[in-house]
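Hey L., structure's done. Input below.
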Amino acid sequence: MSLEEVRNYINTVRRDFASKPLSKSDLNENPMEQFATWMEEAVNAQILDPYAMCLSTVNSAGRPSSRIVYWRDVSENGFVLYTNYNSRKGIEIAGNSHVALNFHWSELDRQIRIEGPIKKVPVEMSDAYWATRPRESRIGAWASAQSSIVSSPNQLQNSVKELEAKFGDGEIPRPAHWGGYVVVPERLGFWQGRPSRLHDRFVYIKNGDGWTMEQLSP
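Output:
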């Protein structure tokens, strides 16, 4: 398919969204409980990787970047992910602790947008999660200098072999540059696709110890 064919395709193919409405009375007063309800429905719908989320960070020049990561835990009523602290996202987080998340479940015509500060989880939490990872994944975390340039086609494979020889059958410790972050939400938006693009949108905004909920125009 050529670029012109792609252009024609995206400008001619349309689909309408579900007829399932979403009203304020349907929603839990606590957005984290509402998130749990929608996550359960996504799991029951057998969506592939319902815990996959888009993480957006911003660098020191104000330029955003996004990538798909896995949500792995809940801490302090926040969303926990694990990564290399020296990766591009880790460097950008160190310079700007405000991030955004997006869960998109097209099968249910739903998305959840989350905004808030991000910080590292306690080392004990990172250690506990590290211990659950498959041995191959732990070797991979040591072998990959995430986001850095790969100097040769065999660089990663050679690094893996060296590390396998180094650790043998022994314990593989968690690298100091690898661990968890928690995104503590200050704003959560729930979007339900509706016919004729008249989507239902509700946003929760942190207000002291509670939340304020408003409906937004699509």
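The longest helix spans residues 31-44. The domain at 16-131+176-216 is CATH 2.30.110.10 (Pnp Oxidase; Chain A).

-- N.
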